[in-house]
Prior knowledge:
Helix content: 40-55%
Order of helices and strands: EHEHEHEHEHHHHHHHHHHHHHHH
Shape: globular
Number of domains: 3
CATH superfamily of the largest domain: DNA Cyclobutane Dipyrimidine Photolyase, subunit A, domain 3
Largest sheet: 5 strands, parallel
Number of helices: 19
CATH architecture of the largest domain: Orthogonal Bundle
CATH class of the largest domain: Mainly Alpha
Strand content: 5-15%
Number of strands: 5
Radius of gyration: 23 Å
Distance between the termini: 36 Å
Amino acid sequence: MGNAIVWLRDDLRLADNPALNAAISHAQATGGRLVILYVLDEVSGGVRPLGGAVKWWLHHSLERLAARIERLDGTFILRRGAAFDELRKLLRETDATGVFWNRRYGGAERDLDAEIKGYASAAGLEAQSFQANLMFEPWTVRTGGGTPYTVFTPFWKSCLNRPEPIRSPLDAPTNLLGLDSSSTPARDALASDDLDAWSLLPTNPDWSLGLSLRWQPGEVAAHEKLEHFIEHRLEGYAAGRDFPADNNTSELSPHLRFGEISPFQIFERIRRVPTSGASDDMLEGIRRFKAEVGWREFSYNLLFHWPDLATNNFDSRFDHFEWSDPNDGRLAAWKQGTTGVPLVDAGMRELWQTGYMHNRVRMVAASFLIKNLLIDWRIGEAWFWDTLVDADPANNAASWQWVAGCGADAAPYFRVFNPMLQAEKFDPEKRYRERYLGNYETDIDYPAPIIDLATSRGEALEAFANVSGRSKQVRPPASLT
DNA sequence: TTTTGAGTTGTTCGA
DNA sequence: GTCGAACAACTCAAA
């Protein structure tokens, strides 16, 4: 009899989950049972602790997943601790002969998986990992010269031009072969943590009301969101995605963060949108939306090949850049949305209240921190990591580096967003700003700008021009496996 | 090896 | 108000 464990991580879904399906097959083939595991690992070295907003999301996502597993007679075990230890313990407790998971792409996460594979192999257990969360495995996307891509457009072109089709998503299983009282071991004999005891939800104060009002975590809600987007927003996406007052984006990012929906599912659904007789806007919307999913693939490609993406300048010429002291109150103003620059403040308040910020505004707020306040991008990245419900190890780091100009596919150094002009262009009716700032133009409590935009722009241009020592150090990719 | 075209998301200035 | 040029020249990727 061969029991099987599926170890869920950033793939909290039942549909299109190859590891889950493989574990079920393993159990079926040997007359065994299935145990579904989630480990909250805040202690393993190198694994970045989750931010506050993401913890809130995780709690609700796990809660909903547990309910669905229960309905399908599955066994869901929650454990907290070092993943390697917890997994070994559960393998022994369940007499499992196989363990299955879907791949992650961060450095520490891959090391952990390798460690577990080594252990399983030595113990004579089957251990298998699967492609589930990226459509294009980073080690398979190479330039003609065999190096990883560092520019998005050729990367994505190369992905889309592949001869082999992107696989269709897998159906959700209809029975999860869980343990029951007649199983060995029985379900009751296995300890599972109480989700509430993990304290993922904020208390003292509970700041999560705004998040609950805006978001519905979970696999079912993710697909509803995709359907709604395709039905109502896709056609206007290319033209409308830059206007933060309107709901023209898919808002799928937090669902993708924990894999409640997979890129394979998104692409399959897009493929079913009729294109014959479709408007040019629809065709352009499809192209742009797919490219946004492509940016996620690209960011993970970068993270895989440069595991220190969140902490080290991709372009090492920036290593000696002199950032200004963040402790003079201006960083606090940025975080609190009290810089006196309305679009920046509206964005930062949207973030604080709802765990989200519109993409266009993210760029403006990030540019303001980096280029007007000259504060190290890593400080901004860390704040977003803690406050965004979609805080993602690859996307967040890659995007901050991109704005800073030290990342892959970097913008020219002279590209400094003017938040007043951006507001005119993309929030002409002030609807977005007023949503988060009220009537800020007549509000005597609304602060004056903490910095002169024109002056600080000039200083940033000067500082960033000095960075360009013209001889970029050659940094070989950290991994060529 | 050399050449060529292109590079998510911008701003300002002056005609 | 609108539009093109300038803002540095560099790096990447493919031919």
